[in-house]
Specification:
By secondary structure, the chain is mainly alpha-helical. Helices cover 81% and strands 0% of the residues. It has 6 helices and no strands. Pfam families: CortBP2. This is Filamin A-interacting protein 1-like.
Length: 172
């Protein structure tokens, strides 16, 4: 390595560089860039909040372990720690919207059933009223028929009226 470095320093004065010199210069620059990226990821991992890391990795271990995991994910260029709650919150919002739609549908169905029930109750009340009217007319007809039978059984009109007075029946 020193041999190349000495050769590089010796040739620095010349403007034309050989292929080996260019490769040597390029490797030095690449090493500098890698070192710079390494320092940046280490500083980022030390500066981050530990709560998202704990949530992402599912445990709260020593700080250095979590920072090392984040540093490694930065080195692998995985930016998966942007928002670990984004997907669950999106799913939750979707479920909430689906539940709201379901609740609205159920309320509409409940209103329809309530209307149908009240309509059925009104029909039953009408039928009950007509049934009472029919029973009343039937009772009146039955009493008239009984009065007519009594009249036929007792040919004496005076006896018939006396019998009616005993039974307290008013003639219509």
């Amino acid at each position: 390595m020193r041999d190349k470095k000495e050769r590089w320093e010796g040739r620095r004065k010349r403007e034309d560089l050989s292929r080996d010199d260019l490769l040597f210069l390029l490797s030095i620059l690449e090493g500098e860039l890698q070192a710079r990226d390494e320092v940046i990821t280490v500083l980022k991992s030390e500066r981050t909040n530990l709560a998202p890391l704990c949530a992402h990795y599912g445990f709260s271990g020593p700080d250095k372990v979590l920072c090392a995991l984040q540093r490694d994910s930065h080195q692998a260029q995985q930016d998966c720690l942007q928002d670990v709650y984004e997907k669950p919150i999106a799913k939750l919002n979707h479920l909430v919207e689906a539940q709201k739609r379901s609740t609205k549908r159920m309320l509409k169905q409940l209103v329809e059933v309530s209307r149908s029930h009240s309509g059925a109750l009104l029909k039953l009340e009408e039928q009950e009223g007509s049934h009472r009217a029919f029973i009343h007319k039937s009772n009146c007809l039955t009493s008239l028929l009984e009065q007519d039978r009594e009249r036929l059984v007792h040919p004496n009109p005076r006896g018939f009226y006396e019998c009616l007075r005993k039974d307290n029946i008013d003639i219509l």
